[in-house]
């Protein structure tokens, strides 16, 4: 089975700077990590390969430093990796990102199964996976919480729909967006890290894609723009009250009335 896992490098802190002109996160020079949800996607791919055999490819999009998450995927057991990286892809919204990733997948070849994490911690839109499947014209299922059955023709999964558990049987090729706790992700192996330290990561630029129209990528290809973005306000104000239980109760009640909570 030919499996592709889409992964992403995200900031390792909520203390990130934002470009005031473009509204895009400044990713260069900040501590980063693999998107936590993607670890579940990688583990799912590894479990499926153990049962069905095949090859796993990890694909990410970002600046050159994003190659580090590909290396981490290698250390977990992924066979090969590719990085979609080009300045002309910068500032892409969800739609442009999904289109770029779909173009990269088409370049890499045909895959039986594409796995994504449910969402990313820096965007939380949970839209990229389903939109990639639309561009590839293949079925997709989100919120996958359990793999019920795998065979050479189809995969059966459970979806956690908050109030219900739904079961879907999907023919290949297809795309699954997996939820956390579908499997416990394994730790990267130092031995595999050493064995794959010289393994080549394919770098994909705009000039290699089937569609090379710059208007379809990055800020130019993004129909949505960030109007305003700002860090959350930090409120460190506090009051210390002393008194008897009755006095403190009265003071709390008065404060709640003052704040119009009661």
Describe the overall structure.
This protein has helices at residues 36-52, 67-76, 94-108, 128-136, 190-195, 245-258; strands at 2-6, 9-11, 32-34, 55-61, 80-84, 113-117, 140-150, 154-160, 165-171, 174-178, 201-204. It contains 6 helices and 11 strands. Helix 3 packs across helix 4 (128-136). Helices cover 27% and strands 24% of the residues. The strands form 2 sheets. A 9-stranded mixed beta sheet has the order 9-8-7-10-6-1-4-5-11. Strands 2-3 form a two-stranded antiparallel sheet. With 262 residues, it is of the alpha/beta class. Strand 8 and strand 9 (165-171) form a beta hairpin. It has a single domain (2-216), classed as HUPs (Rossmann fold, 3-Layer(aba) Sandwich), CATH 3.40.50. It is globular.
Main traits of this protein?
single chain; 262 residues; alpha/beta; Rossmann fold; nine-stranded mixed β-sheet; 6 helices; 27% helix; globular
Kindly give the count of domains. Answer: 1
Number of strands: 11
Beta content: 15-25%
Which ranges are low-confidence, i.e. pLDDT below 50, for 5 or more consecutive residues?
none
Number of helices: 6
Topology, pairings included?
Layout: E1 2-6, E2 9-11, E3 32-34, H1 36-52, E4 55-61, H2 67-76, E5 80-84, H3 94-108, E6 113-117, H4 128-136, E7 140-150, E8 154-160, E9 165-171, E10 174-178, H5 190-195, E11 201-204, H6 245-258
Helix pairs in contact: 3-4
């Amino acid at each position: 089975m030919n499996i592709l896992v889409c992964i992403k490098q995200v900031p390792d802190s909520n203390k990130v700077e934002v470009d005031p002109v473009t509204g895009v996160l400044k990713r260069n020079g900040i501590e980063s990590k693999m998107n936590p949800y993607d670890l579940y996607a990688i583990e799912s791919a590894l479990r499926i390969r153990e049962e069905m055999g095949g090859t796993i490819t990890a694909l990410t999009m970002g600046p050159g430093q994003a190659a580090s998450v590909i290396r981490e995927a290698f250390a977990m057991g992924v066979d090969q990796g590719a990085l979609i990286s080009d300045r002309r892809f910068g500032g892409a919204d969800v739609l442009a990102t999904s289109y770029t990733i779909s173009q990269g997948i088409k370049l890499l070849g045909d895959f039986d199964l594409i796995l994504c994490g449910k969402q990313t911690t820096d965007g939380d839109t949970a839209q990229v996976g389903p939109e990639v499947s639309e561009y590839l014209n293949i079925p997709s299922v989100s919120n996958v919480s359990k793999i019920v059955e795998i065979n050479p023709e189809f995969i059966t999964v459970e979806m956690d729909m908050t109030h219900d558990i739904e079961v879907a049987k999907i023919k290949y090729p297809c795309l699954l967006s997996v939820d956390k706790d579908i499997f416990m992700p394994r730790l990267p192996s130092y031995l595999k890290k050493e064995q794959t330290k010289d393994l080549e990561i394919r770098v994909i630029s705009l000039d290699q894609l089937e569609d090379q129209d710059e208007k379809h990528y990055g800020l130019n290809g993004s129909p949505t723009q960030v109007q305003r973005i700002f860090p959350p306000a930090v409120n460190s104000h506090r009051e210390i009250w002393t008194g008897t239980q009755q006095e403190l109760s009265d003071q709390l009640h008065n404060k709640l009335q003052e704040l119009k909570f009661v």
